[in-house]
């Protein structure tokens, strides 16, 4: 991978983490960036730089920490989806509800396959 590709990928991950942390109207990108940095123990300056002034290179340890943060967030979302499926399955479902649960379970099954799982 070239330096430019690595930095672009890191910038994409940083943007995705901040977007996941953003709470909607009334929230600011700066506040979301600070929460994401605190939550994943990343330097806030790194997230800022990757958004506004992309560096030419990124340190390997920061790249790995950013990658781990993305993987942690994906795992958290998958766990939340599994919990939602359990709750929904426990209710009286209509045929369309059962179809939605089956689709969500199929999605989780497909994501569990290592070759189909990709970072955002």
Question: Which regions contain 5 or more consecutive residues with pLDDT less than 50?
Answer: none
Q: Give the total of beta strands.
A: 0
Q: Determine the strand fraction and express it as a percent band.
A: under 5%
| Structural Rg | 17 Å
Query: How much helix, percentage-wise, in residues?
Result: over 70%
> What value does the average pLDDT take?
89
Order of helices and strands: HHHHH
User: From the helix content, strand content and strand pairing, which structural class follows?
Assistant: mainly alpha
Shape: elongated
Give the helices and strands, then pairings.
Elements: H1 3-21, H2 29-40, H3 44-52, H4 60-90, H5 95-112
Helix pairs in contact: 1-2, 1-4, 4-5
Question: Can you describe what's shown?
Answer:
The protein is elongated and about 55 Å long. The chain starts with a helix and ends in an 8-residue tail after the last helix. It has five helices and no strands. It is mainly alpha-helical and 120 residues long. It is 74% helix and 0% strand.
Brief overview:
The chain is an all-alpha fold and 120 residues long. Helix content is 74%, strand content 0%.
Q: Which short descriptors sum up this protein?
A:
about 120 residues, elongated, mainly alpha, single chain, 5 helices
């Amino acid at each position: 991978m070239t330096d430019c590709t690595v930095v672009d990928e890191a910038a994409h991950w940083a943007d995705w983490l901040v977007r996941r942390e953003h709470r909607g109207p009334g929230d600011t990108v700066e506040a979301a960036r600070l929460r994401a940095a605190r939550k994943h123990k990343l330097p806030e300056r790194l997230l800022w730089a990757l958004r506004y002034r992309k560096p030419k290179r990124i340190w390997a340890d920061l790249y790995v920490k950013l990658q781990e943060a993305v993987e942690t967030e994906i795992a958290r979302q998958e766990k939340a989806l599994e919990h939602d499926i359990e709750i929904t399955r426990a209710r009286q479902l209509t045929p369309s509800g059962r179809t939605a649960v089956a689709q969500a379970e199929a999605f989780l099954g497909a994501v569990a396959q290592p070759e189909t799982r990709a970072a955002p």
